[in-house]
Write a structure and sequence with these properties.
The protein is an alpha+beta fold. It is built from 2 helices and 6 strands.
């Protein structure tokens, strides 16, 4: 359960602190933020799934490119991602 007014979130890449975080922005939309909490991209559920499987990279506010499939060991389990996508 999230606090009132806060978006549900999931740390996708964490190495000594969150580097890339997904926030649920609606039923079928997500916002990715970087380690400085800057929003870097808004995604539909389908786009989010495509990002998770490595179909494209995102660029953070520092100009670094992140392809999630290269950093899965620093992220949540498949089950946690599935629950986040379902809004659980």
């Amino acid at each position: 359960m999230t606090k009132k007014g806060r978006l549900q979130k999931l740390e996708l890449i964490n190495s000594e602190g969150p580097i890339l975080v997904a926030h649920r922005a609606g039923t079928d939309s997500f916002i990715l933020t970087d380690e400085w909490k800057n929003p870097i991209i808004a995604l539909s559920a389908e786009q989010f799934e495509n990002f998770i499987v490595g179909e494209f990279s995102v660029i953070d506010s520092d100009g670094r490119s992140w392809n999630y499939s290269k950093y899965t060991e620093f992220g949540p389990s498949f089950n946690q991602i599935r629950k986040f996508l379902k809004g659980e």
